[in-house]
Description:
Layout: H1 15-37, H2 43-55, H3 59-70, H4 72-80, H5 82-87, E1 97-102, E2 107-112, H6 121-124, H7 129-132, H8 134-142, H9 144-150, E3 160-165, E4 170-175, H10 187-191, H11 196-200
Helix pairs in contact: 3-4, 8-9
Amino acid sequence: MDSFGHDHSHDHPHQSDDKIHAYYQILGQALKELLIEKGIVSASEIQYAMERREATTPANGAKVVARAWLDSEYRKRLFMDANSAAAEFGIELPTTHLVALENTPKIHNVVVCTLCSCYPRDLLGLPPAWYKSKAYRSRVVCEPREVLKEFGTLLPDDVEVRVHDSTADLRYLVVPMRPDDTDDLGEDALRSLITRDTMIGVALAGRTI
Ligand code: FE
């Protein structure tokens, strides 16, 4: 196991995470009750939002990336205005600015939220535990290549690694490079190569089928 709990066979929160979790759970519950009491939102609206959140998976992001691999006009639109390009698939991020980051043979992008756990949830679903861990948040900034290596991602020395810090208002989607040997694959098959980790930038898309 590495220092940020990646490859953990048992995905339980650690003790310090437990305390933090309990604190935010109480805070979240109090806020929810207050919002309902004040009539700002209803309990069913909250329930609907939570269900919608839980139903969102990295398949959303994969739709966007696969289209960018196949359609050069869409690709241009995505890098120019990612919010609008995502909206073409019905993926709306009304309150956050989305930026798509292009991986190239010379530039590799990695995403982090050094402050907390900001993440493009509308495209990737809920963030994995390691993304929220203090180890990932601090280490990927200082030693990105080392962290990538722990994910099994080895980059040639001449590739520049760029680390992007997300905020509440700004989220990133990494567009991994399309693997070379995929000319015969259609859009659906391409989507299956685009994993969550490739869109965070800790993994490279590869042909496995
Ligand atoms: Fe955050």
